[in-house]
Amino acid sequence: MASKYSKYGILSVVVTIILVLDQYTKHLVHSRFRWGESLPIFDEFFALTYVRNTGAAFGLFQKAPAILREPFFIAVPIIAMFVIVVLFIRLSRDQKMTAMALSLILSGAVGNLIDRLRFGFVIDFLDFHWKEVYHWPAFNVADSAIVIGVSLIFLLSLGKGKGCVAEVNSGLTESKKISTNS
User: Fold this and answer.
1) 2 inside domain
2) Structural domain total, the chain
3) Would you say residue 21 lies in a domain?
4) pLDDT at residue 179 is higher than 50
5) To 10 degrees, what angle do helices 7-32 and 96-119 make?
6) More confident residue, 131 or 50
7) pLDDT in tens, 25-71
C-alpha cells in the first residue's frame, strides 16, 4: 500500500514533533529542577534527574578542555546534519522508512545542538538504573530519536534488497541514470 506522505512530509512531521517534545521536556526540567535534583518515578529503576552534559553521548569527553570540546561539539552535529540532508535528498519517493529514520536522527541532532548553542551543554533527564548496582547515563528525547533512527537504519540494512543501504544505493543509481539521460 502506497503511503500518502511524501518523504518531505515525513521529515516535516517528525522534526516538528521531536523538536517540540524535546525542547518542551528540557524546558520543564530546566525550569522546575535544580541542577542534580532527582525525582524518583519507579524506585530502584527510573527517575527524572537534571543532568548537564557537556560531553558527547553518555557524557563522553566531558573532561576534555573546553577550548577543544565546545567547537568540536558544535561542528560535528552541523557536519552530520549536512550529510543527513544530502542522504535525505537522494532518497527515492518510496524510501519512506529510511526517510523516517533519517528524520529521527536529524531531529535529535538539531535538538541537542539547540541546547549546546543556548546553554553550552545538553540537558539530560531520563535516568534509568537498577538499584545501586547499575546506572545507565541519563539521556533525553533527542538522544532517544537518534538511537531509534540509527536502530531503524540498521534493521532496514538487514533486509534482503529492501534495506536502507540498498535503498540509498538504488536512489543514488537512479539519480545517476536521471542525470546521464538529461
Assistant:
1) no
2) 1
3) yes
4) no
5) 30
6) 50
7) 999 999 999 999 999 999 889 999 999 998 766 566 666 677 777 88
DSSP assignment string, the chain: ---SS-HHHHHHHHHHHHHHHHHHHHHHHHHHS-TT-EEEEETTTEEEEEEEE-SSGGGTTTTS-HHHHHHHHHHHHHHHHHHHHHHHHHS-TT-HHHHHHHHHHHHHHHHHHHHHHHHSSEEEEEEEEETTTEEPPPB-HHHHHHHHHHHHHHHHHHSTTTSHHHHHHHHHHHHHHHHHH-
Does 9 fall in a domain? no
Least confident of 53-67, 81-95, 138-152: 53-67
Respond yes or no: is residue 43 known to be catalytic: no
**Which three cell numbers, joined as nine digits, stand for 17?**
514533533
Which one of the listed residues 22, 115, 124, 127 is annotated catalytic?
A: 124
Range of the domain at 158: 15-181
Told to judge if 124 belongs to the known catalytic residues of this protein, a careful annotator would answer yes
Contact 29, 125 (CB under 8 A): yes
Residue 3 lies in a domain: no
Among 22, 115, 127, 143, the active-site one is 143
